[in-house]
Amino acid sequence: MKKSELKEYIKNEIIEILSEATPEDIKAQQDLNVELEKTKELMADLNEDEDSEPSDAELKKADSVSKLASKLQQTSKEMKSVVKKWKEAEGEEKEKLTKRLKELTKIKKELEGLL
């Protein structure tokens, strides 16, 4: 096969393959390319952020995470003690303890969400 014949064959193959693509395929590829560009930009920003030193606010956030964790631990501990009292309680006292457990559960979920 001559070089010119090979070029013509390759050209025809490429045209045939590209003509098989549907408009949906082309649109999907364009959307993918846009998303890849966004990802590339976000990764570049992320790499820049990792290289820089943490700010004072970021360092204080780390402290707040430990505070939240200890608060969560205290809440769980209180819930256990309230459950023990609830098991032994009757009547009106049991209703009060149930309300308190609901409050503590809400607090616990909020703390877990923040962590």
Structural notes for this entry:
With 115 residues, this protein is mainly α. It folds into 2 domains: 1-52; 56-115. The chain has helices spanning 3-19, 23-51, 56-88, 92-114. The mean pLDDT is 82.
Task: Offer a few descriptive terms.
single chain, mainly alpha, 2 domains, 89% helix
Question: Layout of helices and strands, plus pairs?
Answer:
Blueprint: H1 3-19, H2 23-51, H3 56-88, H4 92-114
Strand content: under 5%
The count of helical stretches stands at 4
Give the number of DSSP strands.
Answer: 0
Label the structural class: mainly alpha
Coarse morphology: elongated
- Helix fraction? over 70%
Task: Outline the low-pLDDT stretches.
Answer: none
Question: Averaging pLDDT over every residue, what do you get?
Answer: 82
Q: How many separate domains?
A: 2
Short recap of the structure:
With 115 residues, the chain is mainly alpha-helical. Helices cover 89% and strands 0% of the residues. Helix 3 packs antiparallel against helix 4.
